[in-house]
Fold this sequence. Notes:
Domain Complex 1 LYR protein: 7-55
InterPro entries: Complex1_LYR_dom, Complex1_LYR_ETFRF1_LYRM5, ETFRF1
Organism: Oncorhynchus tshawytscha (Chinook salmon)
Largest sheet: none
Structural class: mainly alpha
Strand content: under 5%
Radius of gyration: 21 Å
Pfam families: Complex1_LYR
Number of strands: 0
Family: Belongs to the complex I LYR family.
Low-confidence stretches: none
Number of domains: 1
Amino acid sequence: MANPLRREVRQLYKNLLYLGREYPQGADYFRERLNSAFMKNKDVTDPKEIRKLVDCGEVVIKELGTLYYLREYRTMKKRFYEEELLGLLNIGRPID
């Protein structure tokens, strides 16, 4: 593997490993899957093929970012609507 590509592959692995800490099914599950995906392609030597795989990995990073953003959005939306619903029903408020 060429030196610049090797550095990119290592950086991709580190980024994915970092993002996998908050994966919904657990960090261990994500790490095992990530390791098996990289080990499956460890014998690829063609620079074009390596570049293609790195690009696919970058897409996965974007998808993980979107997954985490949606999780945050759903949590915030749930909190807001719960408070609004409780306010409409006068639940949790003292009666005057």
